[in-house]
Each structure stands twice: as C-alpha cells, then as structure tokens.
Specification:
The chain is α/β, with parallel strands linked by helices. It folds into 2 domains: about 90 residues, Roll (Flavocytochrome B2, Chain A, domain 1), CATH 3.10.120; about 375 residues, Aldolase class I (TIM Barrel), CATH 3.20.20. The chain contains 20 helices and 16 strands. Strands 8-9-10-11-12-13-14-15 form an 8-stranded parallel barrel, surrounded by 6 helices. Strand 12, helix 15 and strand 13 form a beta-alpha-beta unit. Helix 17 packs across helix 19. The longest helix has 23 residues. It is elongated. The protein starts with a helix and ends with a helix. About 45% of the residues are buried.
Length: about 475
C-alpha cells in the first residue's frame, strides 16, 4: 500500500506517478510516447486521474501501453483526502500564472486576462454597451451558420494568404484598432506590431493608442511591414488633418475612418468600476461618473457626415476605409463615395444605438449585402469585426464575401499575464492552425475555393427576413 502523500511527491517530468482505479503507476518513461502528448498526463501528475482517464480509454489500455514494472502498488484509501481530489479538478484552472504552452484557444486568453488585469482594465476591455446584447449577438451570428463540407478533395497543401488594400497578409485576418494596449502590457501596441509582423499580419493602429504612431512603426519587423491608421474625427477638424498628415509621414499605408461613434455607448461595467474608484463605491447626488470609454470619446465630433470625406480626400491620397457600417444602405453609399473598403462593425458591441434590438451583428449585415447588393462584393473590399474567435468564424465570413476579419479584444488579452509579443504570436498560430484545419475539412485549398455554397446560414437568414419585415 502506498501513501497518497508519497504519490504527490512524484509530480514532474523527471518522476511522474498517477493513480488509476486505486492503483499507482510510474508513467515517467511513457510521457514522451503518449499519443495525446505529455502535458495532459503532467496536469494530473501525483494525483488520481481516474475520472479523466476512464471516459476516453478502453479496457486494457493500461496493460497494453505500460510495462509490467510500471505498476507500483495500490494507494492506501485511508490517505486519499477530499482535498487531494479537489486539487485534481482545479489544477487546470487558467490563472495569471498559466504558462503560454497551456493556452489552446482564444477563449483561454480571455480567461487568463480576467484573472491578471486590474478591475479597471478588465472592465474597459471586456465591456459592451448597456445590456451587452450586441456583444452577445456578434458571437451567436457565427453559431447560426453551419458548414456544408466537401470531401474527397486533395487538401494536402493549404494556402491561407491573401491581400488587403494591395498589402500581403498571411491570413484573411487583421488587428482591429483597439485602444489602450498598455493596460495589458508595458509595450502595448508595439508588442502587437512586432508579434503580428513576424506572423505576416497587418495591424490597424487606433487614434487612442497608448503608444505613439512613430514608436509603433519603429517596432515593426522591417520597413515593409504594413501598418494602417484608424481615425476618430476630432471636434477640431484641424487636429484631425494634422493627425492624418502625421500618420502618413510615419509611413502608414491606409486611413480607416471610424463612423459609428458619433455618440459613445454607455458601457455600464466600465462605469461601475470607475464610480467605485472615484467615489469609494458611492456616487454623489447629481454627479455623473463616466467610464474610460466615454471619457476618451468626448473629443469625437457628432457632426461627421458623408461630406467630410471631401476634406479627408484633400488631406491624403492614401486608401480610405470606412469602419462602422451596419446596414446595406450605408454600404452602398460608401461605395458611391469612392472609398476603397468598408468594415462591417458595431464596435464589438460597445455602441448599442438601436432602441429595439440594438446594433445588429456584422455577419448579418454581410448577409444583407449578399441578398440586396451583391455587386458590392466585387467592387470594393469588405471586412467585418466583432465576435471572431475561431477558424470557422473566418471561414464563414470569407464564404459570405468578406476580404478579411478583424480581431480586437483577443489581441489585447493575448498581451496579458506578461505574455506580450509571445502571446500575440501564440494567438495567431492557434488561429492559423484552426483555419487551415477547417479549410481542409471543408474541402478548400485556398481562399478562392471558399464559396457561399459551403454554408447553410438558414437561422441567420430567418433573422434577416424578420429584420426586413420590421
């Protein structure tokens, strides 16, 4: 009989013991040959792994894969405490101390960020407007589209590369202009620039970046790495003109104009935290407390209109993209005003403007364009952001005609817990692997082979029919 305390001492790659069905095994030598990799075994090293092992292994697997001398004896049941069992259940909880190697999807980064960010920073990054309906709808829209995969196609070689505004990118993915990255890491947007440059992606830098545009440009892998600049139009137009010229002088390749922020949404989570910080939890009578979002947005002009594109055109010759299109009518107007691209976006659910059902999901707006103005899909580049978390999300957007999709919050989360540039690169590698796998399973060897025929967006189309009737 072996004391469970003795088993617990053997919890490393150098000496790894497991308890299975009350029996103790030394699996140290088996770590390197385990089909699922060593990490899953090490997660339960020194503990009882029966509950995790049993559902996925057939009877006799232990005897088949382990030598006879790996069996060390039976664990003394009197020494197995409830605390030890609980440790097995909580060992894999993602915390600010989670190693980057343990991150396996984009949602993991979010869980770690929630643990590692200050309450103020977490509220600013994660919050949506009011009841956060739009933020939730962004994700649900992708879930309402299913894939119709093709089989028996040679998918040995998968190519995910494409072009955005004439610039090469390794995937149809770009970094959305998310502000205040220094909340997550001291190098902020500079760490993002370096990380995405090494992975071949394009970054759109926010007007509200916590690093200067010059510092971000200097953080690039090389001078050929493209950077775009996002503009919030200031109430003082001359300041916006100067900012465009500054960005152009720094070497950016395009200007993205955000148009969905004439009135800043009320991010209640952000404002509750701000109220607690400024007033010790008590708001003085008659005093309005604004969160970081509304404070930063105070400079944005509410007078922006289609006519403002004239002075922007006179200020720069760079390609123009309008970010924040939320209906097919405005998509058509954007094309008629000669911009090179549009971003279908509700600002990540941060701006709920419609009083009935809030701002609709960008994927639904893309479906509107498919149905009512399909000519736009070949006349200009169309992007979307909001709710993209999986390779299948990218696949679905491209199948509906999107040139590329944007990631905002996930890149900020990837910086946290000290991950920095390495976190950014890990996130991109995870997403690339998912996209390549999804393309292969769908029967597409390159982006050109991803077509509308691969989708069944029936539930999304029902939403569209309901919207048209409304």
């Amino acid at each position: 009989m072996i004391d469970s305390a003795e088993v617990l001492k053997h919890n490393s790659p150098k000496s790894c013991w497991l308890i299975l069905y009350g029996r103790v095994y030394d699996v140290t030598e088996f770590l390197i040959s385990h089909p699922g990799g060593s990490s899953i075994i090490l997660a339960y090293a020194g503990q009882d792994a029966t509950d995790e092992y049993d559902p996925i292994h057939p009877a006799g697997a232990i005897e088949e894969h382990l030598p006879v001398d790996a069996y060390l004896g039976e664990v003394d049941p009197a020494t197995v405490s409830k605390a030890a069992t609980k440790a097995v259940r909580t060992r894999d909880v993602l915390t600010e101390n989670t190693p980057l190697s343990a991150i396996i999807n984009l949602n993991d980064f979010e869980h770690v960020a929630k643990q590692s960010l200050s309450p103020n920073a977490w509220a600013y990054y994660s919050s949506g407007s009011d009841d956060e309906i739009s933020k939730q709808m962004n994700r649900k829209a992708f879930q309402n589209v299913s894939l119709r995969s093709r089989v028996l196609r040679n998918v040995e070689e998968i190519n995910t590369s494409t072009m955005i505004l004439g610039q090469k990118t390794s995937m149809p993915v770009f970094v959305s202009p998310a502000a205040m990255a220094k909340f997550a890491h001291p190098l902020g947007e500079c760490a993002i620039a370096s990380g995405v440059g090494k992975e071949g992606l394009i970054q759109v830098v926010s007007t509200s970046s916590s690093m200067s545009i010059e510092d971000i440009m200097n953080a690039r892998v090389d001078k050929d790495q493209p950077i775009f600049f996002q503009l919030y139009v200031n109430q003082d137009i001359n300041k916006s003109k100067a900012l465009i010229r500054r960005a152009e002088q720094a070497g950016v390749k395009a200007i993205w104009i955000t148009v969905d922020s004439a009135v800043i949404g009320k991010r209640e989570q952000d404002e509750r935290i701000r109220a607690k910080v400024t007033n010790g939890g008590a708001i003085s009578q008659g005093q309005e407390v604004m969160g970081i979002g509304r404070t930063m947005g105070a400079i944005i002009t509410p007078r922006l209109s289609w006519g403002d594109l004239l002075w922007i055109r006179k200020t720069t010759n760079l390609p123009l993209v309008i970010k924040g299109i939320q209906c097919v009518e405005d998509a058509i107007l954007a094309y008629e005003h000669g911009v090179q691209g549009i971003v279908l976006s509700n600002h990540g659910g941060r701006h709920d403007k419609l009083t009935l059902n809030s701002a609709q999901a960008p994927l639904l707006t893309l479906l509107e364009i498919n149905k009512y103005a399909p000519f736009l899909l070949t006349k200009m580049e169309i992007y979307l952001d909001g709710g993209v978390r999986r390779g299948t999300d990218i696949l679905k957007a491209v199948a509906l005609g999107a040139t590329a999709v944007g990631l905002g919050r996930p890149l900020l989360y990837a910086l946290t817990a000290g991950y920095g540039e390495d976190g950014v690169r890990k996130l991109i590698s995870i997403l690339r692997a998912e996209l390549m796998s999804n393309m292969a399973l769908a029967g597409a060897r390159n982006l050109g082979e991803i077509t509308r025929a691969m989708l069944n967006p029936s539930r999304l189309e029902r939403d569209l029919v309901a919207l048209v009737k409304l």
